[in-house]
Amino acid sequence: MIAEEWRSLPKENYEKGAKLITHEYKRELPKLKTTNYIVGASLQSLKNEKSALEILYVSDSKVSECATSNIFLVKDGVLITPEEDILEGVTRKIVLGLVEKDYKIERREVGFEELKSADEVFITASFKDVVPVIKIDDFTIGDGKVGKTTKDLMGRFTKYLS
User: Fold this and answer.
1) Is-catalytic flag, 116?
2) Which of 46, 56, 58, 121 is in the most buried spot, having the most CB atoms within 10 Å?
3) Which residue has the higher pLDDT, 136 or 33?
């Protein structure tokens, strides 16, 4: 066990967007909250070296989740999020509930190539809230700026928390 002081993410992650790096991996028992974070923990040095916020797990060219976050993409106004082989996080569930009447949502398999062509990407987690993603590995998402849909969801989530 490692105990660390909790620190909120830098505002820059929310204002300008964050970076993810990918790793070929599929969690065992992904639907269950377990304490097996050895893969994510072993990649912390690389994550820091690459100035990334999170590690995105990809297996057989399919996107699943991040080490400690869920992932969403926006394409042509549609919210898309992986459904299988993920831990369905609390924040993910809240965000989906906040937007289900106003956005078309697709819960389905997401290919890595599809992710590359997304207009917007964001991640959700209990200790991160909604974080825009503008870069994954060496490719830029959309125009490299936080998108309007992501900004809308960030605002809705902030309002939900207050």
Assistant:
1) no
2) 121
3) 136
